[in-house]
Amino acid sequence: MNSNNRIKHQHSRVDLTKPLNFSFNGKSYIGYQGDTLASALLANGVKVMARSFKYGRPRGIVGAWAEEPNCLVQIDVGAKTTPDLKATQVELYEGLVAGRTSGWPSLAFDLKSIGGHFSRFMPAGFYYKTFKWPAQFWPLYEHIIRRAAGYGSSPIEADVETYDHKHHHTDVLVVGGGATGLLAALLAGRSGASVILLDDQSELGGYLLSSPNTTIGGKSAIEWRDNVITELQSLPNVQMLTRTTAFGLHDMNMIQAVELLQDHLPHNQRKPAQRRERLHRIRASKVVLATGAFERPLVFGHNDVPGVMTVSAIATYFNRYGVACGQHALILTSNDGAYQAVADLAAGGLQVTLADVRTEINPAWDARFKQLGIDVYLGFGISEVFGKTTVTGARLSKLNPTNAMQEMLAQGVKLRVINQIDVACDIVASSGGLSPTVHLFCHDGGRPTWSDESLAFVVSANSRANAGIYCVGAVTGVFGLQAGLEKAVETTNEMLNSLGKNSTASKLNLTTNEIARSPAQAIYRIPTNKKAFVDFQNDVAVTDIELAVRENFKSIEHIKRYTALGFGTDQGKLSNVNGFAISAEFLGKTIPQVGTTTYRPAYTPVSFGALAGAHVNDTFEPRRYTAMQPSHEKYEAEFETVGNWMRPWYFPKTSENMHSEDMHAAVNRECLAARNSVAMLDASTLGKIDIQGRDVREFLNRVYSNAWSQLAPGKCRYGLMLNEAGMVMDDGVTACITDTHFLMTTTTGGAANVLNWLEKWHQTEWPELEVYMTSVTDHWATAALVGPKSREVLAKLCNDIDLSPINLSPDAFKFMDWRDGTVAGVPARIFRISFSGELAYEINVDASYGNYVWEELMQAGASFDITPYGTETMHVLRAEKGFIIVGQETDGSVTPLDLDMAWAVSLKKPFSFIGKRSLARSDTVRTDRKQLVGLLTEDPTIVLKEGAQIINSSNILPPVPMFGHVTSSYYSAFLGRSIALALVTDGLKRRDDPANNTIYAWAEGKAVKATIVSPVFVDAEGARHNV
Amino acid sequence: MFVINCPHCQEAREEEEFHYEGEAFIARPANPEAETDDAWGDYLFMKKNPKGWHWEMWNHATGCRKILVAKRNTANHAIAGSWTLSEARKVYDKEQYDAEQATK
Ligand SMILES: [Zn+2]
Question: Which three-class secondary structure state does DSSP give residue A443?
């Protein structure tokens, strides 16, 4: 067990009395309570934790939090496994199992490192240039490249965890719990406003936890932080959420944040009923973004050797986790921001060498560094890091002594190395300044601006105050703590004023011990002839950007996509600004001229589970069951989903030897029962809209293509609904209850759309019509009793003299009539309508009685062997009659005339009904449109494929003209042969022309010969239902 | 993920309660049969589809089920206001009138 890097540190947040066992790549290690996986691995001296994306180079940890580009790990196993987490963000717990995601076949030997030797052959755009041709091989290349590239594996099992969503409304949301965020939350909390404070880490405090020698108001930063948190906890109007990442800022200050509830706990402490993650959706009047900044490394030769990190990361591991990443640190900086860390490391016993690209040093710091025995090289940069799997040293090169790189570049002067010093060290850390975390500010349209003073893309404290968005701290480009706190008070007060609240800021002592900062130098890369990486996760080197510019990519968005700069799970948090600056250098532009790429949600990766929340399985898509469900289950129906409804599909019978019918056998039996005796369908799912009011008839005249003026109470009519373009959109039977009361039925899937459609026309175009509509789909249960014996069955249940017997005689109760009465003692509306062509009654009762009446009908029909049937038989029966299904025979491009249904279009109605004018457009009046016809195959045993293409010849050498497609196709047991419906170009004429009525239906490599016929295959004269 | 103020309910509610109903103030021709094919085609298919301010209809589908008109900026989802159909017509007409005066 090698844990030589762990030190005792007074302010460490790690509890050395609580050791934790964990494993990485199958090897066991010990860490401590408070560690992240990254800090524990560093403490154990683990250097190589990943292999790079393109070249397979060994990589180690660079950062300390969400900015980490290299160390993606696979956490946990089985159903709970999570890929591509950053080791820097994984909290350690007892028994944690972690593995690498990259390095194939192993971390020690990565096949791509062979590619690394040939890296000059793998420049930007390499994949585009090399593997795209020949195109048919791309799937093969892609498979291998993706495997070698090294991202983790998704779990194969279903997720065993649960997730939920919580909605908030708050006066003030503060994002980020660092110094300025805590201060803003405190001021807002004291003012009485409702406040939510979010932070993505396990503890509030931000960088204060990494810089414990800082003081605020005469107290150590840690003590100041503790006091603020204690006060916030005492305020009932303040809610604090840790381990909660705000990942998106959307319209009107809707912030989405995901909270990790128990991923940090050992498995045996996780509560089974607790959610794994919670998505918070927060609607805030005012948002204070205190999102801080990430330190930007400098770009230099071989800057990807494990052991090269950012200064803030080294300081964080040292001060917060008590981990010295090495014994001798070489630190390179362009700004004073790194100095406190340099002093902390040296004071903590490390040997420290400081190189500053600037030629002058702040005297106050100079004195301290001398005291601490730190070697300081001014005007130097690192041109090359030595070492392969770990840092062994680095070469310092003196930068051009004029010390104005930016200016010189603008003048076209080449920077030149004067002399060199090689330094032995086992850590290299660099700071090129800070890159503000502007992501949330930009998600809903805000843009960052370049600040020459801060040398960063920054956001303004109050430029979006109108939208309720304020920014404090480092995100605004104010990088000093003292200035940050003072400006945060100002901005928070402005925010509170806009809420009409008072501030108590005058009572705070915010004086810090910070040494005033001297200006930073604008420098992004140190000149070198070695490979220098800008983006570690995507292996983008300076030379790749140079190449992209040479190949004439000019927009930063294009350079990004050509080089892959800023892609991946870290989204360029470390690399983007360096990439923009280096692109600017090669383009001969300024950084603001080049600008930024677009910041889009999510800020960090979000699990699908969190987004779904409780909306999974039945709560994602609820299933609707009809009142007859108990009976359907009793008769062992197979179900199919129609809309959200579970409808019986067919009812397989199980024989005495337990052999269950297949669908084919069941449907044949059900069809014959309906045609020869009696059968029953649950039709409850059809949409039903109750329409009442003085003007219902006129309304129906306008929304249906057929006429409704003459329909008397007690009568029903089939209606065809068109959209304004003249295309069929829905159909169904509508009954006249009284002159001012109609009941409309719609297709099962179209019910909600049709109601919306009717309401829209009523409200927008015809508000003068007195019409009221409501959905009554769920109120009624409907049993369709079908077949020659249906009247005899129904009669048994309609004979109750005391209630109101219904006269079922053919003269008294005609086809397309409906009657009120009782069935089995239950009040019912009975419609004599037929979707099968047989004598049939649709019995509607209060849904509460649906199953009872269904069972009564089953009993009454027992002597006729009454057969329940499902949707499949319903489809066969209607296809035998040539009845359409909207959405199957139609697809939004089919007019009633195309369906040969001119009988359902009344051109004589005075009002120009919806779609009427469109039926006269030049395209809709063409007589050679695709039209509905029947097809009979030459071989009656062949059932055509639905969707088969209609062609004119069995010769299928391309090009083959296409004349339509098969819309419905079944085997008809009643006819003893297959039948099909199809939309065929000029079909109505071809149907009647024996010289021209042969087609081939082509599907799955076969062309089947068939004849175009009438779509009505059974009982064209209607004798069967007219009995 | 914006919020729409329903003028019927007089409440600001989440977007997901509403159903988009397309561009507002496309009047159905009073006598469709008198329209040429071209004019009828324009009515059916030609929408403004601007980047910027847009007058559009929304149905408060899971609320009062009434249609309202909102003036929304399609580029940034800002909503300048929302009204009942008849109120919106007045605001819209005045805006058109003012714009005409300004160009004179
Ligand atoms: Zn409403």
Answer: helix
Contact at 8 Å (CB) between A754 and A669? no
Yes or no: say if A701 and A761 are a contact pair by the CB < 8 Å rule: no
Least confident of A148-162, A828-842, A874-888: A148-162
Q: How many CB pairs under 8 A join A and B?
A: 54
Q: Does A466 touch chain B (CB under 8 A)?
A: no
- Neighbouring residues of A1023: CB distance < 8 A, sequence distance ≥ 6: none
Do residues A533 and A545 touch, judged by C-beta distance below 8 A? no
**Residue A52 exposed, middle or buried by CB count within 10 Å (0-12, 13-18, 19+):** buried
B91 at interface of A, judged by CB pairs closer than 8 A: no
The architecture that CATH gives domain A15-149 is: Roll (3.10)
Instruction: Tell me the sheet residues that pair with A75.
Output: A82, A98
Where do the DSSP E strands lie in A667-759? 679-682, 687-692, 716-722, 728-738, 741-746
- Closest to A722 measured CA to CA, from A888, A890, A875: A890
- Put simply, the answer to whether B2 touches A251 (Cβ < 8 Å) is yes
At A561, give phi and psi (nearest 5°): -75, -30
Rounded distance from Cα A691 to ligand 1 centre (Å)? 21
Residue B76 distance to chain A (closest CA, Å): 7
Which residues in chain B touch residue A767, judged by CB atoms under 8 angstroms apart? 85
Q: Which residue of B has its CA nearest to A446?
A: B76
Angle at A558 between CA A557 and CA A559, to 5 degrees: 95
Distances (CA, A) of A87 to A35, A64, A616, A903: 11, 9, 29, 71
A765/B2 Cβ within 8 A: no
A254 vs B contacts (CB less than 8 Å):
1-2
Rounded distance, CA A608 to CA A337, Å?
Answer: 38
Domain count, chain B: 1
Pairing between strand A27-33 and A15-24? antiparallel
- Written out in words, the top-level CATH class of the domain with range A629-684+780-877 is alpha beta
Residues with Cβ within 8 Å of residue A654, at least 6 apart in sequence: A636, A660, A661
**Matching fold, domains A164-293+436-500 and A297-432:** yes
How many of the other CB atoms lie within 10 Å of CB of B75?
Answer: 12
A959-1004 confidence digits (pLDDT tens): 999 999 999 999 999 999 999 999 999 999 999 999 999 999 999 9
Measure A761 CA to ligand 1 centroid, in angstroms: 17
pLDDT of residue B91: 97
CB atoms closer than 10 angstroms to residue A745: 28
Q: What is the pTM of this model?
A: 0.88
| pLDDT 10s digits, A67-116 | 999 999 999 999 999 999 999 999 999 999 999 887 655 666 555 565 45
Cβ density class A108-135: b for 16+ within 10 Å, e for less:
eebebbebbeebeebbbbebeeebeeee
pLDDT score recorded for residue A815: 97
CA of B10 relative to ligand 1 center, distance in Å: 7
For A532-598, CATH number out of 3.50.30.10, 1.10.260.40, 3.40.640.10, 1.10.10.1100 equals: 1.10.10.1100
Q: Is the pLDDT of residue A278 over 50?
A: yes
Please give the distance, rounded to the nearest whole angstrom, from the Cα atom of residue B59 to the centre of ligand 1. 8
Interface contact B77-A765, CB threshold 8 A: no
Fold category of A297-432 in CATH: FAD/NAD(P)-binding domain (3.50.50)
